[in-house]
Amino acid sequence: MIEIGVSDELSPTVQHALERNKRFVSSVSKSIGFHVQKYIKQAVRSGELASESAGWQRKWFTEGARPPRRELQGGHASTFLYGQMARAIGYAYNQDASAVDIGWTSRTSAMYGRYNEEGGVQLVTKSIRDRWFAVYKAEIAKYGKEALASHDFSKFLYPLSAKKTELETPSRPIFLPTMQKVEPKLPAFIDKKVEDYMNGNVEFGKKNRRKYRIYRA
User: Fold this and answer.
1) Which of 69, 200, 204, 205 could anchor a disulfide with 77, C-beta 3.0 to 4.6 Å?
2) Are 154 and 65 in contact (CB under 8 A)?
3) pLDDT digit string, tens, across residues 73-95
């Protein structure tokens, strides 16, 4: 999770001028939250973060490309890391701190999000080993033994070897690298909002009934 405070980017004079207008601070904070969470989602889905760390450049923990992952996951596999979890990224205005929090919008996504950001190791249990073998048998029935004899890991999933005792998920950070790219752009964004406000060019929209809560992992 990341927290962005509008007041941190304002000069003392402007802060004093706006300190009584909580509505403006709230509006700008929410606007920042919307644009930043949108950028984070796009960065995750586009693969932009692949250049940020070695973990993003490594294969999935399944050690295969999309076709075998689709077989393992019952016919569903995202084309990008984190998959549908990216939809759980959102923002919420923190009135007490006069800031906007950006992060995961459910406890479950926060838990899995932290695991994927920090990386971890999953022990290969009998049920996991059996699941992989069941997929392998299904592939043989579907494609034939000759096709799987190619040992093409980009197309097929193969049983885990007896020596394989752990499945590793490498660290794939999201919020820190994207915030490092966004932060330099925030002052200009806020300055423009303040300028519009001072010139009387700001119209506050209707209250947004859609509320999110940001969870810490």
Assistant:
1) 69
2) yes
3) 665 556 667 777 888 999 998 88
